[in-house]
Amino acid sequence: MSTSAATIDHILDSLSGLPLTARKMFGEYAIYLDGKVVALVCNDRLFVKPTTSAVTHMPDLPMSTPYLGAKHHLDATELLDDPDVMVEVLRAVARDLPAPKPKSPRKAR
User: Fold this and answer.
1) What is the pLDDT of residues 27-79, one digit of tens each?
2) Strands of 21-25's sheet, edge to edge?
3) How many CB atoms within 10 Å of residue 32?
4) Around Cβ 53, how many Cβ atoms within 10 Å?
5) 3-state secondary structure of 5
């Protein structure tokens, strides 16, 4: 089962206080903030990267794997009802993550 575009639209709309973008990958989505993957949406569920700040802000959230073979993430689907908390958490996750590596220039043909 893959994530519906309506779910992504709802998440991006609910968290409109952040400049989030979503990118479809293999039927599921990655959520980006400042060029960093801060969350995944798999099977219509929101999974936040378990950085130190995320775990500190949401210690009671269950850990689960977004897809078979993935590392554990925080299942934050229930927090979508409280967008102010989610905005704060996703900002903290983005601060915890390293800056994205610059892409190497393409070679001329």
Assistant:
1) 899 999 999 999 999 999 999 999 999 999 888 999 999 989 999 999 999 98
2) 21-25, 28-33, 36-42, 45-48, 73-75, 63-64
3) 17
4) 19
5) helix
